[in-house]
Specification:
9 helices; ATP-binding; Rossmann fold
Length: about 280
């Protein structure tokens, strides 16, 4: 039996994760009061209850402090119940956007600003995140991509690295993406835009890829970028980082940046971390 506690930031996708776990056969309970955690764990020990896999959603809405929550988890552990913690996270910018789109109030900002509620909650749950078995940052994830991560962990039971990489191409003339951690400018590379036969194509097309990568500076840049990221990522993980967004920009975000982003993603896929690719401005 797997006993999963789903927690994390409000608005990061906990309810969606619980629904996905329910779809794969988990008995799910959302917003369980913290003080009922031990009582529920006792039920899982009762063979007559006929409960197989369980997922409980517990978060700031329960009203308990994180210290109380951790005390209850220790009691569950002492009972001999093995549990796993799935922590859902997202950037402040994305959380604010989601709250505004749904026109909901944050649980800790009933009569104040959403931003203040998010900051209070993040400060409260940071300690809990240290105990998580799995941390999924949903800032860059579509619903189907979150489902793929849930399936990978709880259906296929693959090893999970608790670190996600997103490689994003963009055009500088449209602005740098707000949530990137590292920005690389590839406008120094030869530009296929000036070849009228290549201009309508994108970096997803073979002729553009051949044009960009036939130049030595493109290959050397890619090699040095890969080497630097292989050094950086383990050190980011050591410092407690769970998500890395790499922005690669050219002038319009259609040719050079797309080509280099695709090539970099292929190299990073050799590492034991999920890699997502996004071409923000490819259709502009």
């Amino acid at each position: 039996m797997r006993f999963v506690i789903v927690t994390g930031m409000s608005g990061a996708g906990k309810s969606s994760a619980l629904k996905m776990l329910e779809d794969i056969g988990y008995f799910c309970v959302d917003n369980l009061p913290t003080r009922l955690l031990c009582k529920f764990a006792e039920l899982t020990l009762d063979k007559t209850a006929n409960i197989s896999n369980v997922a409980l959603g517990i978060d700031i809405r329960s009203g308990a402090s994180i210290d109380e929550f951790l005390d209850e988890l220790k009691k569950v552990h002492d009972m001999g119940v093995k549990f796993e913690i799935l922590f859902l996270n997202a950037s402040n910018r994305i959380l604010i956007k989601r709250y505004k789109e749904t026109r909901r109030n944050h649980p800790l900002a009933r009569s104040g600003r959403i931003e203040d509620g998010i900051e209070k909650e993040r400060e409260a749950v940071n300690e809990l995140k240290k105990y998580a078995d799995y941390v999924i940052d949903t800032s860059q994830l579509l619903t189907r991509e979150l489902k793929a991560e849930i399936d990978r962990i709880f259906v296929r039971e693959e090893e999970y690295a608790n670190f996600n990489v997103a490689a994003v191409s963009f055009g500088f003339k449209f602005g740098i993406p707000a949530d990137v951690d590292l920005v690389f400018d590839v406008r120094f590379l030869p530009n296929p835009y000036y070849d009228l036969s290549l201009r309508p194509l994108t970096g997803n097309d073979g002729p553009i890829q051949e044009f960009v990568m036939k130049h030595e500076e493109s290959r050397v840049f890619l090699e040095k970028l890969e080497d630097m990221l292989k050094f950086l990522i383990p050190n980011y993980i050591k410092e407690g980082k769970y998500n890395l967004v790499i922005g690669i920009g050219c002038t319009g975000g259609k040719h050079r940046s797309v080509t280099i982003t695709n090539a970099l993603a292929e190299k990073l896929k050799q590492l034991p971390y999920p890699v997502k690719v996004e071409h923000r401005d490819i259709t502009r």
